[in-house]
Amino acid sequence: PKTPRNGSHPSSSGGAQHLPQTIIIGVRKGGTRALLEMLSLHPDVAAADNEVHFFDWEEHYRQGLGWYRSQMPFSAPHQLTVEKTPAYFTSPQVPERVYRMNPNIRLLLILRDPAERVLSDYTQVYYNHLQKRKPYPPIQQVLLREGRLNPDYKALNRSLYHLHLQRWLRFFPLPHLHLVDGDRLIRDPFPEIQKVERFLQLSPQINASNFYFNKTKGFYCLRDGGRDRCLHESKGRAHPQVDARLLHRLHEYFHEPNKKFFELVGRTFDWH
Ligand code: A3P
Fold it and tell me: Residues 63-113: pLDDT tens digits?
């Protein structure tokens, strides 16, 4: 019999767990869940349900690749295993660790307008606090310090895509990485998903009919074998109102970093 890829663990059902052949590395709030769910429409894709945090959490990384594999779904030999952990993109120690596991791995990175991503990031933390009945300051207060944008605010840093990408490019050449336009994935997911299919050399099996716009949700939802489903209610939340001047400053803040990012990847995005 053929030796399974990655020295996999067989199960009684015939499937096995494999190390991922592709990882969605980020960015936080870029649309990573949507991308994973949409990619899972493909019969040759087996996705881990939860964010695994193997490469960025020491208590996980210490347990080794055997532990990582044990977190993966059971899959058939022809399927690609994928996991998503958005924190990988911005964690300095992660690129080298991924490289040591598999220097040929294919990486997926979904990005969104950096200023919009900051608002989404804020909204996420705001709701996390609300759930724990803890107060969280209004957006102006976290964005500004002494009247200027506070560069120590983590959400701003996470949107400096060129800084984070540079670290990945020390280990992986650009062709190993596929950039998904998260703003386009929101507006019209199918073409973006087709590009991902091609990048992963999957047969074209996801169709336009797998997506329908849900007016109530205000986002595309998935239609899979006659079953309709939208993403969880925590995906696609309204962002706080930011006054026009502050928004303008936010856009200005990212202007140069965005240019650097476009140079790095040799393409542009439709960002403010
Ligand atoms: P918002 O909730 O701020 O709008 P992640 O999964 O990486 O946390 O990203 C969450 C973001 O995915 C959401 O941010 C939303 O804009 C985006 N998204 C993209 N496609 C979506 C879809 N079909 N349904 C819901 N959210 C989607």
Answer: 999 999 999 999 999 999 999 999 999 999 999 999 999 999 999 999 999
Question: 158: which residues sit within 8 A by CB, 6+ positions away?
Answer: 27, 28, 90, 117, 118, 121, 164
The class level of CATH for 5-265 reads: alpha beta
Q: Would you say the CB of residue 184 lies under 6 angstroms from ligand 1?
A: no
Q: Whose CA is nearest to atom 6 of ligand 1?
A: 33
The domain ranges of the chain are: 5-265
Ligand 1 centroid from CA 231, angstroms:
8
Ligand 1 centroid–CA 228 distance in Å is 17
Residues 229, 126, 160, 103, CA torsion sign: negative
Phi/psi of residue 137, nearest 5 degrees: -65, 155
Closest C-alpha to 29, from 107, 108, 123: 123
pLDDT digits (tens, 9 = 90+) for 180-238: 999 999 999 999 999 999 999 999 999 999 999 999 999 999 999 889 999 999 999 99
For 255-266, the pLDDT digits (tens) are 999 999 999 999
In degrees and rounded to multiples of 5, residue 214 shows phi and psi of -100, 110
ipTM: 0.99
Q: Are 29 and 90 within 8 A, CB to CB?
A: no
